[in-house]
Write a structure and sequence with these properties.
alpha+beta; Jelly Rolls; 3 domains; six-stranded mixed β-sheet; globular; cNMP-bd_dom_sf; Cyclic nucleotide-binding domain-containing protein
Length: 465
């Protein structure tokens, strides 16, 4: 795994580069330069008093990892958290990449805060340099009380450039028709937030035209800076994904697998804007192309009213879930906005008896059978007036499923929430249900904290629990 660079940082001088010998790399000398100055720039540590920074610097342990090394593994017990000094790291849950961490990001603290197993695997994408703080030092310095660890998954890594927004371009009748048709046939948009004519017109009106030279990577897989949605006016773009996680960037590019082509009348880039997720694929211009661009802020603003109205409908379902009865109104709204709609076919098993529970379901259309030990116990049916819920204890504990849920209607539709997402939004449900009745919402404090803008750069953090 990682190469230990510093056996004891307690004697390190804050502003003097200290040579470290990497005993696992053939005694290669490594310079660990000014950890105190670097840590002082990490937003997480801004609350510490100036006099506490040297102590923090001396408490940390410098650790490096080679590309492909696992820093922490999902399910393991944690005894340290890490701050990235340089390099990139992949965040994977159940083997699937969900984020990319960069310089200034931190991870692993939830294992110290709550004594929980690691909820994700962190793997070095490139050579990775980190500062590691052990559980003992974490407790000794009182970091649990001194630092503000948000429970929500935030956006981005390190510093981001301000979003560039250009004035809308003039559009001919033919160009407008192409854009309208592209938006209407984008299944991801239509399934998440149905677009009426008014919303489509607003998106078309706001778009500007750009030319894209051949070979340009307009989107890069894993990038968290998802700023734009694109509609292709002219030309072709290849869509490719890496075959394997943990490779060097050169190896990943060589192993990239083409999964499709987007040509005139197609669109891409919506998923990362809708779900605040890393880009799922690399999009490269196969020839000189022309695209229409909509920026993230406009995209989200136009869709917000539709999303809010849908969330209000979902809240009605959540109000009937006894396990969620102690959630505050704004907390239920946050959960409602994170629900995912899934469709199932007749005979499909939504989950099986005995498997580990990870998702909670609200059946909003169709009928399912509850089967235990091979025998049907009852049926659940969703109507226009009443939804049916099942699997809600998965939000509390990952205990084995007590029964199999099988679709008996021709089709069924359910809203789904997984425990990892729920915990990222609000924190553990067990803690929420232990609160006193007059306790404030866990979102109140977060909503009061604004991103700090310095020199035209907005600072954000990614929290990996």
């Amino acid at each position: 795994m990682g190469a230990l660079l510093c056996k004891d940082c307690s004697h390190a001088q804050e502003d003097v580069p200290q040579p470290r010998v990497d005993s696992r790399a053939g005694g290669r000398p490594v310079v660990d330069s000014q950890p105190g100055k670097f840590l002082a720039q990490v937003k997480l540590f801004k609350r510490l008093r100036e006099g506490e920074m040297p102590a923090l610097a001396s408490a940390c342990e410098a650790v490096s990892f080679k590309a492909g090394d696992e820093v922490i593994r999902e399910g393991d017990n944690g005894d340290a958290f890490f701050v990235i000094r340089s390099g990139d790291a992949i965040v994977a849950v159940a083997g699937k990449q969900v984020a990319l961490l960069k310089e200034g990001d931190y991870f692993g603290e939830n294992a110290l805060l709550r004594d929980e197993p690691r909820t994700a695997t962190i793997r070095a994408k490139s050579e990775l340099w980190t500062y590691k703080i052990s559980r003992a030092k974490f407790e000794e310095m009182g970091l649990r009380e001194k630092l503000d660890f948000p429970q929500r998954k935030a956006v981005g890594g390190g510093a981001m450039k301000q979003l560039e927004v250009k004035p809308p371009s003039e559009k001919s009748a033919e160009e407008r028709k192409l854009m309208v048709d592209a938006l209407k046939k984008n299944d991801n948009l239509q399934s998440c937030v149905p677009l009426d004519d008014s919303k489509i017109t607003q998106l078309v009106d706001a778009a500007w035209k750009e030319t894209v030279p051949i070979g340009t990577e307009i989107i890069k897989e894993g990038d968290l800076s998802a700023d734009y949605f694109y509609i292709v006016q002219q030309g072709k773009f290849s869509i490719s994904v890496s075959k394997k996680e943990g490779q060097s960037s050169d190896a990943a590019q060589a192993a990239a697998q083409n999964i499709g082509v987007v040509s005139a009348g197609g669109s891409f880039g919506e998923l990362a804007l809708l779900y605040v997720a890393p880009r799922a694929a690399t999009v490269r211009a196969l020839e000189a192309a022309v695209v229409w661009v909509v920026d993230r802020k406009t995209f989200k603003t136009v869709l917000a009213k539709s999303a809010d109205s849908i969330a209000k409908e979902y809240i009605k379902y959540l109000d009937k879930v006894q396990l969620l009865s102690k959630l505050k109104p704004d907390e239920k709204e946050a959960v409602a906005k994170a629900l995912t709609e899934m469709s199932f076919s007749k005979g499909e098993e939504i989950f099986q008896q005995g498997e580990q529970g990870e998702d909670f379901y609200i059946l909003v259309d169709g009928e399912v059978a509850v089967v235990k030990d091979g025998s049907e116990q009852t049926k659940l049916k969703a109507t226009a007036a009443q939804a049916s819920m099942f699997g809600e204890r998965a939000l509390l504990t990952k205990e084995p499923r007590a029964a199999t849920i099988r679709v008996t209607s021709e089709a069924a539709k359910a809203l789904v929430m997984d425990k990892v997402t729920f915990d990222m939004i609000l924190g553990p449900l067990e803690d929420l249900n232990k609160r006193s009745q007059d306790a404030p919402s866990v979102l109140t404090k977060k909503n009061e904290v604004k991103p700090k803008v310095e020199g035209g750069a907005e600072s954000f953090e990614i929290l990996v629990q």
